[in-house]
Amino acid sequence: MAETIVRLKGVGKEFAEDGLVLDGIDLAVAAGEFVSLVGPSGCGKTSLLRLVAGLEAPTRGEIRRSGEVSAGSIGYVFQDPTLMPWADAFANVHLPLKLKGVSRAEAEGRVMAALEMVGMADAHHKLPRELSGGMRMRVSIARAIVAAPRLLLMDEPFAALDEITRFRLNDDLMALWERHGWTVIFVTHSVYEAVYLSSRVLVMQAGPGPIAEEFAVDVAHPRQPDFRLSADFADRAAAISLALRRAMGQLAAR
Ligand SMILES: Nc1ncnc2c1ncn2[C@@H]1O[C@H](COP(=O)(O)OP(=O)(O)OP(=O)(O)O)[C@@H](O)[C@H]1O
Ligand SMILES: [Mg+2]
Q1: Is 86 a pocket residue for ligand 1 (Cβ < 6 Å)?
Q2: Which of 11, 14, 15 to mutate to test the pocket of ligand 1 (most atoms within 8 A of CB)?
Q3: Over the stretch 192-234, which tens digit does the pLDDT of each residue have?
C-alpha cells in the first residue's frame, strides 16, 4: 500500500456569511494518485483545496498530512493564477525558493529546470504581459513545482484556455506526473479532462455533505490521445456526467 499523503475525516467548513459550505468530507489520498474533484460551481472545491493546503482551518473534523506535506511541501496552482506583473518568468518561478531561503546559485538551476519541464525555458526573461494565457499558465505550474512538492494542488488550471492548448497541457502534465510520480489533487469542471488525466474522480454534491460518488479510472499509463476517442472513455465520461447531474439534484425527482 502506498503511503497516505493526506487524510480528511468528517471535515466541515463554515463561513460567517455563507454558513456551512462543506460537511462530512471523508477522503484519503495515497502517494502517486491523480485525484480529480468535479462538482457544481460553489460546492466548495476551492475551499476543500485550501483546507488540504492548510491555508484555512476546518470548522469540524480533522485533516492529517504526511510529514513532508505538513512541513509545507505543497505546490498550489490557484484558480486565478497571479504572476507578479513586473517580474519576468524566471523571477516569478524563483519566488517560492527565495521565500524558502534557497541560495540564488542553487535556485538558478532549479528554476530553469522547472521552466524546462513546462517548455518555457526559452521565455524565462519574458514578462507576464508578453506571454499568452497558456504560457502564463505554464509559468504558474513551474512556480508550483519548482520546490519539488510532495503534493500538487491544481484549481481549474486550464479552464481559461482554448481546447487545443488545454489538450496539449493535459498531455504535458500527464507526462510529468507519469515521470515524477507526483501526487495531484486536480479541480476541473470538465468531466473529459478528469477522465483523461485521473486515477480517481470524485463527484461533490451541491450542498454540504460527503463526497457524492467516486469513480476509479483504472486505465493504464502512459495514456495516449487516442484514449479520448475510445468507447471506454465515452462510457466513463457518461457515467460521471450522470453522477454530476445527480449531484446537482437534477435527477432527484426520478
Ligand atoms: N474565504 C471565504 N469567506 C467566505 N465565504 C467563502 C470563502 N471561501 C469560499 N466561500 C464560500 O464558500 C462557497 C464555496 O466556494 P468555493 O470557492 O469553494 O466553491 P467552488 O466549488 O470552488 O466553486 P467554483 O466551481 O465556482 O470555483 C461559496 O458560497 C463561497 O462564497
Ligand atoms: Mg473554485
Answers
A1: no
A2: 15
A3: 999 999 999 999 999 999 999 999 999 999 998 899 999 999 9
